[in-house]
Amino acid sequence: MSEAPASPNERRTFLAIILAAIGAVTAGVFGWSIFRFLSPVERSGEGSQVRVARELVAIGTVHFFAFQGRPAVVLQPRAGEFVALSAVCTHLGCIIKWVQETQEFLCPCHAGRFGNSGQVLGGPPPRALDTYPVTLDGDDILIG
What we know:
The chain is an alpha+beta fold. The chain is about 20% helix and about 30% strand.
């Protein structure tokens, strides 16, 4: 029982089916990756509040932390007054740095400057940093 060799048309059809299947799987993988990248981050439910010990934030200093999956910062500009801000520059999304000497935030990407309440002091940022609600709970600061 010998089988006749496949004709060139049958081989082409087989290769076309295999290549189409590989292309569909590849497109699915890339499509899912792009969808997950572009879909918004869920920001409710678990992790909607962050607790920071007051002792970590001395007067005139800052404490960086993660809030709802994004970088954030809390500072104490005056005794007993706490301000929580997003640590993401409103210009292009770079992470801001605290400059102790000038008591302001600086974006290292394009020299955007922000005051200790998040207001724009200079540079290209179009708006102030996002602020988060702050409440005090004993020896802790509750953010969110």
